[in-house]
Amino acid sequence: MRGLNKLAIALIATTTLGACVVRGSGHARVWVPGPVVVVEQPPPPPPPRRTVVIRPGYIWIEGRYHWSGNRYVWRDGYYERERAGHHYRPGRWQRQGRGHVWVEGKWEARGRAHGHTRDRRKVRDHRR
Predict the structure, then answer these.
(1) Model-level pTM?
(2) Domain range for 60
């Protein structure tokens, strides 16, 4: 009876694992919300601004510093396709208590009031 149960489990596992295969191709920037990182020291000034070529149908998202381990690291800007009926609100480093947090940029519907919504993500403190 025991051997039969193991065989049944193995059979179920092999038939369901085949259904979990996902294939795809292409390139996309995907941002997955994570915990908010609080950094005590402010980010350094950005490097000299590069010349941005206007590309119809795209907007330029400015580069920014992000916190990596125990230091700021520069992340270059990039082009993103415009979204009809929306405008892009750029991200920014914002003071929070004794530290600084990155507020991610976002697309907003045109004409929407700039109200504040509460961020319910976990806060991770990097102060020493």
Answers:
(1) 0.56
(2) 32-125
- Does residue 71 lie in a domain region? yes
For residue 119, the number of C-alpha atoms closer than 13 Å in the C-beta half-sphere is: 13
- In contact, 44 and 65? CB cutoff 8 Å: yes
124, containing H or E segment = strand 123-125
Q: Let me know if residue 7 belongs to a domain.
A: no
Give how many domains the chain has, as a whole number: 1
Are 38 and 99 in contact by the 8 Å Cβ rule? The answer is: yes
Q: According to the model, what pLDDT value does residue 2 have? A: 58
Question: What does the angle CA 100 – CA 106 – CA 111 come to, to the nearest 5 degrees?
Answer: 120
Burial class (CB within 10 angstroms; exposed 0-12, middle 13-18, buried 19+) of 100: buried
